[in-house]
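Intended use. Records like the one below are meant for learning the mapping from a protein sequence to its folded structure. Do not use them to infer anything beyond what is encoded.
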Amino acid sequence: MSKHPTLLQQFRSFYLQNKLSDLEIAIEYFSVFGGTSWNVDTTKPLFDLIAHKILKNYTYIHADITKLTYSNKLSHALLTACATGDRRVYSSYKKARLSREEGNEALHALLRSEIVELEYSLERPVREEDDNSDKLNFISPFMRFWFAFVSPFYKTIKENDFSEVEKAFTNREQGFNDLIFEKLAQELLKKSLIEDPIVEIGSYWDKNAEIDILAKTKSGKLIAGACKYTNTKVKKTELSKLKEQCAKAEFEPDMFVLFSKSGYSSELKALKGEDLKLFTLKSLKPLVEEIGEKELIPCEGKKY
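Structure written out for the chain above:
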C-alpha cells in the first residue's frame, strides 16, 4: 500500500495552493507540476514556467531524482518508455530495448522506490490468449513529465538549449493531459453515482480492446466510458467506437459515459438518457469543492 497521496489528493492540494478556479488551466499545469507542492503562477505561459522552474534547475532536480533511481540507466530507460508510450509493462520493455530480465529488474527497483505503481485491467479478457501485461502508473505527474520531456533531452538542456524540449512538448501537450483527465473522470464518476454506488472502477485493456473507464455498481450494473481531452466537440462516432471496443471485449454495458473537454455535437446530445451520460470539464467541479487547509501537501524537497 503506497504511503503517497492519491492523484485526487495531489490535485486538490495543487488547486488550493495555487488559488485556481479554472479546471482547464488546473489540469494543464498539474500535468507538469503535480506532486511537487511548488508555487505555480498560472498567469504565466506554461512553457515559460517549465523553462524557468525545471530546465534552468536541471542539475539540481536531476540530482534529487537520481537519489530515487540510483542513476540506474535501465530504470531511466524504462521510465522514459513508460512516460512516452502506452504504459503497458512489456511494450515499455520493448520500447526501452530491455530484455525481459533487465526490464523486470528495473521495474522491481522502481516499485521499491515508489516512483511508479502497477495498474491492473479491471477485468481479465474472456480468452486467455488475449491477455496483456499490466500498466505502469507514475505516482506523481511531475515525474511522468520529467521522463517524457526532460530526461530524453538532457544533453541540450545542459547546454542551455531548450528548443528540443519545447518542440516535443508543443507536439504532445494535449495528448499528455489525457491521462490526468481520465483519472479525474473516474474519480468524478465514483462521486456522482450515489443511489447505486460504484464498487469497482478502472480501465480495461487486452490485445484487441482498450476502454478508458470500466466500472461496476453495487447492483451489478456495468458502465463503460471514454474520455476526450481535445478542442473539438465529441461526435456520435466516439460512442460508436466505445461500443465497438466493448463488443471486442465481449462486454454488454448497462450504461455508457462520455467525458469531453469541449462539449458534444447536437446529434450526440439528443441520445442522452438513462443509458448514456455526458460529462464536460465543468462536471469535474465537485472534485475541487470545499478543500480545507489541512489538505495542503507540504513540499518535501527544495521549492523551485
